[in-house]
Structures are given as structure tokens and as C-alpha cells.
Amino acid sequence: MKGSKKSKRKLKKPLKVLFALVILLIGSGCLLQVYFSFSKKESPKPNKTGVQKEVKKDEKKTYHASMIMVGDSLIHNSLYYDAKQKDGSYDFKPMLELTKPITSKYDLAYYNQETVLGGTELGLSSYPCFNSPQEVGDAFIDSGFNLVSLATNHTMDRGEAAVLSSLEYWNSKENVVTAGSYRSFEERDNGHIHEVNGIKYAFFSYTTWTNGLVPPSGKEYLDNVYSDELAKADIERVRDKVDVVMVAMHWGIEYSLGVSASQEEIANYLSSLGVDIIIGAHPHVVEPIEYIGKTLVIYSLGNYISAQDSTEKLTGLMVSVDINKTVDKGITNVAIENPKAELIYTKYNLSGKGNFKVYPYSQLNNTILPNYRTYYEKYKKVVTERYPDLAFVEIGEE
User: Fold this and answer.
1) For residues 174 and 146, what is the distance between their CA atoms, to the nearest angstrom?
2) pLDDT confidence of 215, banded at 50, 70, 90?
3) How far apart are the first and last CA of the chain?
4) What pTM value is reported for the model?
5) Alpha-carbon torsion 182, 183, 188, 191, what sign?
6) Of 43, 147, 156, 272, which residue has the fewest beta carbons closer than 10 angstroms?
7) Taking a C-beta distance cutoff of 8 angstroms, is the pair 226, 249 a contact?
8) DSSP states of 242-285 as a string?
9) CB burial class (10 A; 0-12, 13-18, 19+) of residue 42?
């Protein structure tokens, strides 16, 4: 019995040592946990720049988008003859290569597709009932254009089939927004809100002219014919949901350098609805620019590319603006600022009607366009008639 008690006493000592070691390890673990928790608080994970930044709810935020606008893509047969390749395809990209470095650098780049891009399968055609190759759109997309107006007096030239073919083409292109021609009323009345650089915008397009070729009854969505009621319904649907509302207007009098009473009436009405930018087309020549309140109105950008037959019709405008948005203490302010204008000219061989090329006036000389400086001063005066302070790109000496 004594030997048994002695053995028990011998076992108690190692157990006490083991127990002490366990307590020590548990205590160490707690200390380590406390240490690491403090370490996490003292050394927060850095952001991408390596600097911890606390963002306050009331901090002022600014957003910016750049935008450029050009006029009509009016595709006569001489243009697509010039663009035709040996394999039967069409390449219009070389025609725009001198302006591409300008247009491609903007966040938003707008143009008016005057003639419907129904494509070759329907048979190409020229004035008075146009149908153009879809490669036209490829060239404009390549030049950075991503806002396209489709409501014109030539939209219905080749009927519903050409319109639907055009829309199938445009809807297959990513990051391109079109307006003015649709596949249904539902499509026409929805989906007009877009975003660039944190700025939400809505884009609409209307025509006041149809050349008597109106969409079939019940399919008015194919070509957006302007009415005060339609514009009011469209704009009121989105005005409080976006920062900027843009409207492309096909209006005015062909080949008139002045502004018609109807253009002024519509411009004032759209301004009263809260439209920020009105972009005009149809006259095929340049017309004045002005502000109506806070609304920038470009009455006509003229032709961007065409095969028309006079310097007035071959001269167009590029107009750029800054869209600036500021959010400060929950209040949002948006401004269309710093409008700038530059004239462009379509050069081609008048005898053979080939070698089409769009030139900025700043790259012209008397060989390309004799007396180009005289034309520059003439059209600059037209454009700035109502806005003398408009910044204009000055052309250099020869």
C-alpha cells in the first residue's frame, strides 16, 4: 500500500508541470490575439495608392466628360463608288483619316447619319431615295463616334426593310448609342438613359421633315417625327433622372445660312423643357450657334461628308464642349461649358468625283481649296453671328 502512494506522488509532479505549461500557452495565445488585434487597428490596409483616405459624405465631387459634334453623313453614289474595294466590300475609313485624330479623343462623339444604312443586300441607291453601305458606320465608329442620330427626312427612303436592317446593324455595335429610329414603341419610349464618367445623360432625335415618306400607321416608331407633345413626354420622363438632356433636331430650310422662325420656336420650347444641348441638321450648310438660357443651340452643323457641289455645302462644323458636373453637400450642378468650333471641308475630284477626304480648315491651303481663307472668314461670321465670343479654331498662315 505504501509503494502505491509513492507512485501516485511521483505522478503528481509531472502533471503539475504539464498543467502549468498549458496555462502558459493559453495565456500566450490570448496575448498574441490581443497584439494582432491592436496591430490591425494600428496598421489599416492601404488603398490602391498606398495612402489611407477617409471619404466624407459631404466631400465635394466633380465629374467631367468631353463631347464633339459633327454634321451629316450624306452618302451619294460617288462616295460609295470611291469606297468600293476589289473584293466588293467598302472602306470609308481613309476619307476620315485627317479628322479621326480629333474626333477619337472625346468621350462622346456625335454625328447625323443622314442616309439609312440598309446595306448592300437591299441594293444601294443614291438621291433622291438613298440606301447606303453599312461600312459607313464602321468608318465612323473607327473615328470614335458613339452617338448617332437616325431621325431624318431620308430614314424611310427604302421602306421598313431598310430601317430594320439599319437598326440590326447599329444594335450589334457595343458602346454606340443611337436615337430617332426604333423597332417598337416600347423601344422608343424606354432605354434613353446612359452614363459617361459618372454623368447620366439622355439622348433623343426627331425630324420635322419626311419628304412625304412617313412610317406606316401603327409603326411611327420607325422614324421619330417631331411634335411638341412627343418631345414633352420624352423629356419629362427622364429630366429628373439625368444630368444632361441632348436633342438632335432635323429641321430648318435646306441651304439656308439663316435660322428659320420654326427653328427658333422649337429651340425655345425645348429649352423651356430643360434640354441642355440642341444639335441641328438638315440645311446641309452651317448656321449660327447661341445659348437660349442655359441651352446650347447649334442650329446646323452642315455636312460632315457629302458629294454636294458647292463650297457652302462642302463646309461643315465640328463643335466641342465640356460637360462638367459638381456634387457639393448633396446639391448637383451641371454646366455645358467652353464651346469651341472648327470648320471642316470635304475635298474630292470634281471631274471624276473620287478621292474623297474630310479636311479641318486648319489643314487647308490654296491648292486644296482656292481662297480658303476667304471662305473661313465667311462661315466663321455666320456661325458666330449670335455668339460673337464663341471660341473658334484659328487657321494658320500658309
Assistant:
1) 9
2) very high
3) 124
4) 0.85
5) negative
6) 43
7) yes
8) -SEEEEEEE-S-TT-SSPPHHHHHHHHHHHHTT-SEEEEESSSS
9) exposed
Per-residue pLDDT, 396 = 64
Burial (CB count <10 Å: 0-12, 13-18, 19+), residue 393: middle
- Contact criterion met (CB below 8 Å) for 152 and 168: no
Burial of 164 (0-12, 13-18, 19+ CB in 10 A): middle
Neighbour tally for 314: CB within 10 Å: 24
Query: pLDDT for 97-129, tens place per residue?
Result: 999 999 999 999 999 999 999 999 999 999 999
Contact 112, 155 (CB under 8 A): no
pLDDT tens column, 315-359: 999 999 999 999 999 999 999 999 999 999 999 997 766 899 999
**Is residue 28 scored above 90 in pLDDT?**
no
Ramachandran sector of residue 127 (left: φ over 0; alpha: ψ -120 to 50; beta: rest): beta
For residue 33, give every residue at least 6 positions away whose Cβ sits within 8 Å of its Cβ, in sequence order, or none: none
Count of C-beta atoms within a 10 Å radius of residue 123: 10
**Angle subtended by helix axes 261-272 and 228-238, to nearest 10:** 30
Closest listed residue to residue 335, CA positions, set 300, 291, 299: 291
Any residues with CB less than 8 A from the CB of 259 and at least 6 apart, and which?
252, 287, 288, 299
CA angle 131, 135, 139 (to 5 degrees): 125
Query: Distance between CA 175 and CA 22 in Å, rounded?
Result: 65
Q: Residue 56: its pLDDT value, please?
A: 57
The label of the residue with cell 474595294 reads 85
Q: What is the CA radius of gyration of the chain?
A: 32
Query: Is 379 in a helix, a strand, or coil?
Result: helix
Closest CA to 257 of 298, 287, 299, 290: 287
